[in-house]
Specification:
The complex is a heterodimer of chains A (about 525) and B (about 160). Chain A is an alpha+beta fold and about 525 residues long. Chain A is built from 17 helices and 21 strands. With about 160 residues, chain B is an alpha+beta fold.
Chain lengths: ~525, ~160
Amino acid sequence: MSEQRYRLHWVTAIIETLKAAKEAILPLVVLLFANGRRDWNTGLWYIDYLSFLILGGLIILLSVSGLIKWLRFQYWFEDDELRIESGLFVRKKRYIPFERIQSLDYTEGIFHRPFKLVKVNVETAGSSSLKKSEGELTAITKEAARQIEQHMAEAKRKRKQPMAEDLVNDDPFYEETVEAVKEKAQKVFALTSKDLFILATTSGGIGVILSGVAIFLSQFGELIPYEWIFDEFASFVKFGVLIVGLIVFAGIVGVWILSVIMTFFSYYGFTVTLEDDDIVITRGLLEKKRVTVPLKRVQSVSVIQNPLRQPFGYASVSIHSAGGGVGDGAKINLFPLVKKNVVQESLEAIFPNYHFEEPTTKLPKRGKAFFYRIDFLWMLPVIGALAYFFFPYGLLSLLIIPAIIAFGLWQYRSGAYAIYDSQLTMRFRGISLQTAYMTKRRIQSLEMKQSYFNKRKQVATIVASAKSGMGQHRGIIHFMEEGEAERILSWYEKRTVQNAVPLLHVKDESLEGE
Amino acid sequence: MRPQPANQISRKGLKVWRLYGIIQTSILTLLAIGFGVLVYINDWYTWLYIAAAAVVIADSYISIYLIPKIRWMRWRYEVRESEIELQHGLFIVKRTLIPMVRVQHVDTSQGPILKKYGLAVITISTAATNHSIPALEMEEADELRNRISVLARVAEDDV
């Protein structure tokens, strides 16, 4: 049977070309620099302009391949599957059963806007292989996207009620349900413009940009005429330390403003809505993104407070999802910035079967020393060396000791935990304070760690691992009471009838049941 | 106090670890000899010979005798109906609980040295983590793997 086949919008060709060009940009720049700075002239024009010829050739090649990619790409619906055929030299066919599709994520870039198009990422469970299992439709109209959604909903409905199929097989009914679902959408979170500003200013994006600059410098280090810069700099220093300081300061402020603008663009209009059983996150100014996370795919919830935001009572909330790819793909910023005192309320609106109270049980005093003791191992030789080689001033390095101890005590004071009947709450600090909420069924394995010294003091560390995309998200309780740690292990073991605790009332579908 | 998991790994595992220690030490010895040659050629201090020898001797004691022994004594496992419990670690003792319902798959594998001694490694994978029990007798490993996979299939979620 021949189904109707669909093609992507022609703007795909342009997007594909630009994408390929972006990947090739680094070698290209190097090529231009390397060839362009010659002084000698061979007299042969095609050698003199070799780099430009290569550049031109490459641009033509990329555009042609982008065009062919677009022409070759087709998708259609057949047998309750989304079928995609693509490929420049190697023809690839990918069949994705609708029931396996977890969500469709939409992105609207600047090329999509004028034509009312979206980029669709098809997210599947994707837990069985490292390969990118989702399909990507670079540019289709919004109607076409809705059409896929409808096919998906239909397939899922068929699967859910195969018995009742004869009774309610009419499309009108189906249309109705879709409408009903749409109406049920409930807005649970939105970033106000004030929040957006605070988020941008405290996001730490400055670090990202600075490291980007560092990478750039390391890549192009050889092309930058350092000697010349140093000569300039030497004469420059004569202007006085004040001016140099001002310039450096201006540079940092500039980078910071850039990071604020970037954050502003990417988080503009951030809203979280609850549609049926999905969390839908939309954001972005120039590039609009729409991400869908099915509630039952959520593995753990974390409330994070970095030291910049903590004093002002702000926090951010991220969730870890089972779908998505390696690394950050599965960590989703649910609330990029939120007042700490409304976190509990807003989270409980989304996850009714979690307890979002602050954990109350603190850590025992006798474990306190472990938070900084191990640091002395590397610290003492460093201090010794500094004090010896830079004699009088090197002694200032002794100040590291109180700093490390204070940091350790800070971590100690931050630690806390709580167990509810089927949930473990862990609060711990690296630099930022994190409160991880994990339900028992989402904890994949639980570990209790104890060194010889820990054992003597009867403290132990608990590490709970939950799934996060291809990797794991770990919650930690450092140096807690040994007996309590063992109690958590027993809590995690399957309950026997004797010590049965009331079961959790809400039964969400299991991950394994997918 | 929580009781330790019941089973220990094969005694032969100790031998294999000693063998690994010997291999590691011989590499170190080669390096030390190379260093000694350098010292001789460049006419550096004599005490450098002694230092190199001391490092080799200390390493052979630690990595051939001490570490395998502690590791082996520490390694314990127990496969119960509804969970697997592991205990291992050199300085830091780790006890891991893996519920049967979370087990996704179990593998056994063996390298050339393990094969010579008739041993195998069992690797238990959950959706997020991997855990392995080193050095089990081959028959035991096969039997355990089958048992875990059966238990994991039967295990029902209680929550």
